[in-house]
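User: What would this chain look like folded?
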Amino acid sequence: MPELPEVETVMRGLRAMLEGRRIRHAETTRPDLRWPFPEGLGRRLTGATVTGFRRRGKYMLARLDTGESLLIHLGMSGRMVARPAGAAPVPWMGPQGLASDARGHNNPPEAHEHLVMETMDGTRIGFVDPRRFGSIDLVPTVAEDAHKLLAGMGPEPLEADFTVARLAASLAGKRTPIKAALLDQRVVAGLGNIYVAEALFRAGLSPRREAHTIPGVRAGRLVPAIKAVLEEAIGAGGSSLRDYVRADGELGRFQDRFSVYDREGQPCPLCPGLEAGGCAGVSRIVQSGRSSFYCARTQR
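Assistant: Here's the prediction, encoded as structure tokens.
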């Protein structure tokens, strides 16, 4: 599932293509994804102007001049497909060869494209989700944070209110492993398996360590490590694993910089090596059904 850096990257791409533009036409190609679409979604989007964007955790919000915000969650396999105004139509091969959509364009929805929006200048945005674990909703802009999917979320890790003191307070008394605590969106918003592994490595903390032992010096290492990992990943366009690609079709590059994630048995960047006297390399354990990668020698 895309994590904060991937969602931020996609949102920035959508902002560049949609902000300030009016949606000439919008339509859905099925009634639901993970949950049913809002009633009349295409009609309610048609004619609206996109006034701005906001990310909350792993969710994107496109704000409209109608007073509503389009809430988008990519889920496990969702992605946004963008074609700028003036770009050549995308050919689509159907049973009868090159096909056209209902409006006569030679760029009908590609497979699993469940929401399509086209602006007045011809910019075209589609939401593609083969496994349909994503979700789309409309929420009053003034009540975004009260939405059932956003209410109760913790602080944004790249904002000023995500401090050592706030993380320490959230972890106080927690007997769960720090890995599980950081994946709890009520503790901090937007983190997932990849960036928790990388942040814990940078902070020198084992994913096995109980969360209540973090407040203090360890929290003082962990908060800047989380911020640094996320900022570097956003700068690299995220990590392109499995289904994720950016809205412009390009791949992120942060996976080339992983220190521990998905590197079981490979050398730790901080240790002498796998030879005698060095570390045993990156280890993999399973916590709550998910893989955790870490160096047992440097992460305690």
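The radius of gyration is 21 Å. If you want, I can go into more detail on any region.
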